[in-house]
Specification:
By secondary structure, this protein is of the alpha+beta class. It has 2 domains: about 90 residues; about 240 residues, Alpha-Beta Plaits (2-Layer Sandwich), CATH 3.30.70. It has 9 helices and 11 strands. The strands form 2 sheets. It has an 8-stranded mixed beta sheet. Strand 9 and strand 10 form a beta hairpin.
Length: about 350
């Protein structure tokens, strides 16, 4: 797609303004914000300047076409630049796409066993192990906030924080119902069962402005449910917070009640923020066909078929036959990157149409 020169100039002008302001201000808060703006805009500005340089060079060469000595050389060089132009313009178009303001945020990952009994809980544990390994490969930090282990292994539910730059941008398409087809360890007849687990990925923006008030929250304390010996049996350290207007509930059951209160309030704010984000995403999905992340957490998004060794993402009709590596977390990027590329392509198409 052809990007107007005026749009390219606006990007460069904005970047130059930020750069100039960074060296002129002494306000600490402004310096912090300018630093973030600079880091976000720098790769865009570099790509834009590269494209502008190529266009300027082509214009200079075209002016030489009538030159008896340089015309033939200029013609060849123009053709070389023309051949490189489509890829460069696509690269810049991707850089110019509007960004989700939460893409750089850390996340809270929630995984819950669905249909399938013990096997669903085991599968929930497999998913958590997969995401933990993937997070490690990205250099992110994983901390379990709350979990409910199942008798046969895995989790009925597990909630974990994943901290690191770009976590939400990479993980946001994982929300939905994940389905597994395999012979459970509890199956004696060798029959293949289908089980499911639900994944939710909540962004943790630095500033959450949702009009939140603790006056709308009911706080209950209870005994922690996890392992922990005498402490768990005797201390009412777990905290449950209920947002009365919406009915949203969060539970934190670490050893420290003070820490549980702080974490529960944080998680509650994130859930309320995410509810509003889902609503907005659903509205956008109505406007754009083929959106990957519609905000619908009940949507079946992926199937892990062990007998055939395949993983299928139903939203983009992607099927890969490296299930073991994907479930291990080592090749999850094959799926994640395909989802991001598909979303970018859909948004590019929309930008070209509108």
């Amino acid at each position: 797609m052809h990007i107007p020169d005026s749009k390219l100039s606006q990007v460069v002008d904005r970047f130059d303004q930020i750069t100039a302001r960074m060296s002129a201000t002494s306000d600490t808060d402004e310096i912090v914000q300018l630093g973030k703006d600079y880091a976000e805009l720098r790769p865009v500005a570099e790509g834009v300047k590269k494209l502008m340089d190529v266009r300027a060079e082509m214009a200079d060469l075209e002016a030489m076409l009538d030159d008896p000595e340089m015309g033939a050389i200029a013609k060849d060089e123009i053709q070389t630049l023309k051949d490189s132009l489509p890829a460069l313009e696509k690269e810049v178009s991707l850089l110019l796409l509007p960004k989700d303001k939460d893409d750089n945020a850390s996340i809270v990952l929630e995984i819950r066993a669905g249909t399938g009994g013990d096997e669903a809980a085991i599968f929930a544990g497999d998913l958590f192990a997969m995401y933990s390994r993937y997070a490690s490969l990205q250099g992110w930090k994983v901390e379990i906030e709350n979990d409910s282990e199942a008798d046969m292994g895995g989790y009925k539910e597990i909630v974990a924080s994943i901290s690191g730059a770009g976590a939400y941008g990479m993980m946001k398409f994982e929300s939905g119902v994940h389905r597994v087809q395999r012979v459970p360890v509890t199956e004696t007849q060798g029959r293949i069962h289908t089980s499911a687990a639900t994944v939710a990925v909540l962004p943790e923006p630095e500033d959450i402005d949702i009009g939140f008030s603790m006056g709308d929250v009911r706080v209950d304390t209870m005994r922690a449910s996890g392992a922990g010996g005498q402490h768990v049996n005797k201390t009412d350290s777990a905290v449950r917070m209920t947002h009365v207007p919406t009915g949203v509930v969060v539970v934190c059951d670490a050893k420290s009640q003070h820490m549980n209160r702080a974490n529960a309030e944080r998680l509650l704010k994130m859930k309320l923020y995410d509810m509003e984000k889902q609503r907005v995403d659903a509205e956008r999905a109505d406007e754009r066909a083929g959106q990957i992340g519609s905000g619908d957490r009940s949507e079946r998004i992926r199937t892990y078929n062990y007998p055939q060794g395949r993983v299928t993402d139903h939203r983009i009709n992607l099927t890969l036959y490296n299930l073991d590596k994907i479930v291990a977390g080592d090749a999850l990027s094959d799926v994640v990157n395909a989802l991001i590329a598909e979303d970018q392509a859909a948004r590019l198409a929309q930008m070209e149409q509108g």
